[in-house]
Amino acid sequence: MKLSHLDHLVLTVNDIETSCRFYNEILGMEVLTFGNNRKALRFGQQKINLHPADQPFAPHARHPTPGSADLCLISETPLGEVLDHFRTKGITPVGEYIERTGAVGTILSIYLNDPDGNLIEISEYV
Question: What would the 3-class secondary structure string for 65-110 be?
Answer without folding.
Answer: CCCCCEEEEECCCCHHHHHHHHHHCCCCCEEEEEEEECCCCEEEEE
